[in-house]
């Protein structure tokens, strides 16, 4: 079983809450124990505890197979690109990071950091921060200064019936995502984050939005109220599943979000989305 999260945004309390819930005996008795961890990017910026988050992630790498992709905020920090909505407190905390802290992001031979995607053909996963489209196929030849905004770390799923570019990145249709992923993985699940809101779309000949029909079920685990939505995976279909924000400290509107994570089960194959709600009792 895989544990997946996205958009932790330097929120150590949320990260510890996710890990505590997902590794608790109550949770593992019902859902199983995770054996791998998938980080879908944006572990940095907006939140105020980047050093602690990076240290915790590095400790997890020592104990689990751990797969990470780059998020646009990770790139913003590492490449000194301005990305919106980090507070002065957050910027001060990030300014104190040293080379040992950021060694979590593996440097590539060409001077870039990390991976834009994690593809697991055995289990049919195509994991990205924003979207799976090949930047070479969507980047205009006359846009060299903005070419980084077409990377998989910046792509975002559009609600429109057309694709377009803004300075928030390239907005893609689900149909384009499925066509690209098919080139790499047959009968796939695209896992992404970036937009902070859960989503689930299925391709079974046509394209169907599943999320509105997913019945939320509440339960109490480790003193937290969990809201779960289960997606049963038909091996003949393709899926695009977007995780909600992991670290709500990194959201525009404070106190309006809660930590989210997901698990991927393989026997039978399911993706289960979780939100950790505040206990109002």
CATH topology: Purple Acid Phosphatase, chain A, domain 2
Annotated CATH architecture? 4-Layer Sandwich
Please trace the helix and strand order, writing H or E for each element: EHHEHEHHEEHEEEHEEEEEEEE
The largest sheet, given as strand count, sense and whether it forms a barrel, is: 7 strands, mixed
Q: Could you tell me the mean pLDDT?
A: 94
Name some characteristics of this structure.
281 residues, alpha/beta, Purple Acid Phosphatase, chain A, domain 2, six-stranded mixed beta sheet, 7 helices, 16 strands, 26% strand
Task: Summarize the helices and strands and which ones pair or pack.
Blueprint: E1 2-5, H1 12-22, H2 25-31, E2 36-39, H3 50-61, E3 66-68, H4 72-78, H5 88-95, E4 118-120, E5 125-127, H6 135-138, E6 156-157, E7 164-166, E8 169-172, H7 174-182, E9 189-192, E10 199-203, E11 207-209, E12 217-221, E13 224-232, E14 238-242, E15 260-266, E16 269-277
């Amino acid at each position: 079983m895989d544990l997946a999260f996205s958009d932790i945004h330097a929120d150590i309390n949320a990260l510890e809450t996710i890990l505590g819930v997902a590794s608790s005996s109550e949770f593992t008795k019902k859902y199983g124990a995770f054996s791998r961890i998938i980080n879908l990017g944006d572990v940095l910026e907006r939140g105020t505890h980047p050093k602690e988050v990076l240290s915790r992630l590095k400790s997890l790498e020592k104990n689990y197979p751990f797969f990470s992709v780059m998020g646009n905020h990770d790139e913003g920090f590492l490449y000194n690109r301005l990305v919106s909505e980090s507070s002065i407190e957050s910027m001060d905390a990030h300014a104190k990071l040293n080379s040992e802290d950021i060694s979590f992001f593996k440097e590539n031979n060409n001077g870039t950091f990390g991976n834009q995607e994690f593809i697991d053909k055995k289990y049919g996963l195509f994991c990205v921060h924003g979207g799976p489209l090949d930047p070479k196929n969507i980047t205009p030849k006359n846009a060299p200064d903005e070419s980084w905004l077409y990377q998989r770390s910046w792509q975002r799923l559009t609600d429109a019936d057309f694709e377009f570019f803004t300075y928030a990145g390239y907005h893609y249709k689900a149909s384009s995502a499925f066509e690209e992923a098919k080139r790499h993985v047959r009968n796939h699940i695209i896992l992404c984050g970036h937009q902070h809101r859960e989503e689930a779309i299925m391709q079974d000949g046509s394209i169907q939005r599943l999320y509105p029909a997913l019945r939320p079920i509440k339960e109490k685990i480790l003193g937290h109220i969990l809201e779960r939505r289960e997606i049963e995976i038909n091996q003949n279909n393709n899926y695009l599943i977007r995780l909600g924000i992991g670290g709500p400290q990194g959201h525009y509107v404070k106190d309006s979000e809660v930590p989210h994570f997901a698990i991927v089960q393989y026997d039978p194959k399911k993706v289960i989305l979780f939100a950790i709600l505040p206990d109002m009792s």
